[in-house]
Amino acid sequence: MKRYSFVIAVLASFLSACTSSPVLQLKNNTAKARKDAPVVISRVEIQKLTGEIPNEKFPVVTDEKGTVIPSQIDDLDRDGKWDELALVCDFEAKEVKKLNVNFVSYDKIPEYTVRTNVRLGVGSIEGGFEGVDHAVSPKGFTGVPISYQAESVSWENDLMGFRDYFDCRNAKDLFGKLQPEMIMDNIGTKESTSYHELSSWGMDILHVGPSLGAGGLALFHQDSLYRLGSTDKFEFQLVTKGPVRSVFELNYGGWNVDGKSLSAQEKITVWAGKYWFQSDVTVGGLDEESELAVGIVTSYLKEKKPFSFTANNQFEAIATHDIQSMNNDCLAMGVLFPSDSKVRIGDAPVLSEEVSNGSRWNQPVGLTHFVTQKINNNKSATHYFFAAWELENKKWAEQENFKNLMKSQADELSSPVVVSIK
């Protein structure tokens, strides 16, 4: 597939008008090359480099040759002042890069290629959908009639697309992509073709049914799975979206687990160039250490069973790999999680056909392979959900290639790019 060139040349005359800052040093400590390595630099760190940050100015990151590195600034606490500068960068093994930060007026911000996106469209298929930054799904809403574009909160990067049904099902689904452009703003509209059919951009490639889908959540309690669905409150809140990363929150209240009412928050982060999204989950109202379950649907597995493996000395994984996509080709899915957070690996009970095809309201979890993580009251548990589709890249037809992807990403997560001031 053709990919964008994400490097933007900067004219010397343009840079000469900018106020330069001390040099940032970024170091890849691993013995492997890295592509689109995520880097986060706090506002406090930038201020140490540049002194007081100018009002109404935007930081632009350049390398020693004056080439712009795609980046964005994010106001994560939504107080009107940006908190972090985020960028992605390629590295050779053990490479050290020296970068400059220059401030420019907003009308001179370079035009970066947008490689991540979050979308919640509110409206109807006939009347159209308007993208919003915040919404609350009505209690007991089953998704009918369709009030949200593609029925879901959707997020994507240049490689894959994901969605979470914004109703009482609250299971995650996958969109396989065949081109790097952002497509979530357009699918599920009156003007678009059915996303259940293969088109030039790709398609919905996963059958979810009564499962947790692609990384859906539940609480494992006394040998039962309690789906994070049919809650009293289900709220979407966009945190940030930009060319290199997007972040949003799903907030819940009144999650009934064996008669106890819990609250929860899932913060999802997607980076450019990655076959995964990060999920940080917090649960409130727990009296003791509990087990958060993260699931992978198994309904279309044909020949191969789910498998698990050690990714490195810090991470383990569960995964599936089979001719299991809705396009009848190879689809690989996996959950990467810190080894010290693991409690158990298991499978949801087999449901009767009547239950599987029954009401969406508070539906029991079935057809799901899952891992549970330790979770304590109001303390975050983190995992990474991976998905790769054969039609996007033929190498994903080989299980070993997908395992190696998860292992390499585990190594990168274990050894993030080191940021220092020089």
TrEMBL record:
PROSITE patterns: PROKAR_LIPOPROTEIN (PS51257). InterPro entries: DUF4861. Residues 1-19 form the signal peptide. Keywords: Signal. This is DUF4861 domain-containing protein. It comes from Labilibaculum manganireducens. The lineage of its organism: Bacteria, Pseudomonadati, Bacteroidota, Bacteroidia, Marinilabiliales.
